[in-house]
Amino acid sequence: MSHGIVWSAITRHDVILAEAGADDGAGKVISLAQKMMKQKPTPGWEFKRTKGYRGIKFHVYDHAEDRLDCAGDSSRILWIFSCIADSSLEECQQKSFLEKLVYLTEPLRHDDYLWREGELLACQATFGPMLQQRMEQVGYQGKLAMVNQSINTTKEIMARNIETLLERGETLEELDERATELNVMSKQFRKRAEQVKRFEMWQNAKHGLLIGTAVTAGVAVITVPPLIAIL
């Protein structure tokens, strides 16, 4: 039986680009994952639980002004990073796993055609093995797999998400009243925290990407099957 993170996925709007994981045999993981995919997106974290499992999502709105989304219009792309973990994993470790995925995929989300315009499971063959490897890494490394500077960085992303949505004419109330951090973020919106050191962040991201690429190359013959994308 798997312990730690049992399922994860990266989604562009409602299109699952890559996922990895396995059900528990009782349908709980699949059911929770499907419910998570139906939740209304927020500018930050979203949580959903079932007995024995906790699901977490983090949303990132594409802020590139000079790019169009896959529909060819000027609306920004919404990236959703999701995972489900059992009770053996702390919430902070689960969040850190998603934060690391945000860092690792940033250059891919910015420049890769398949990521920005690909259809269902377009990145499964290339990123599925890496996703599986990162899930297993959390299981055997525990808190050592956590990223640094996570709080400031994710708050900065959430602040930009709020700014993006407000620019589109949406009110904070329309975003999602269930997002408990929104009120705090809106009050602090004009008081931006100091910028995270870009050089160090990119060094960490590139280092992780190189490690993941090496592992993926070594297991290139392994196919990671999707769990819910084709249901």
TrEMBL record:
Residues 143-203 form the V-SNARE coiled-coil homology domain. GO terms for cellular component: membrane. One of its GO terms (biological process) is vesicle-mediated transport. Coiled coil: none annotated. SUPFAM superfamilies: SNARE fusion complex. Keywords: Coiled coil, Membrane, Transmembrane, Transmembrane helix. CDD domains: R-SNARE. The chain crosses the membrane at residues 208-230. It holds the Pfam family Synaptobrevin. The keyword Transmembrane applies. The keyword Transferase does not apply. This is V-SNARE coiled-coil homology domain-containing protein.
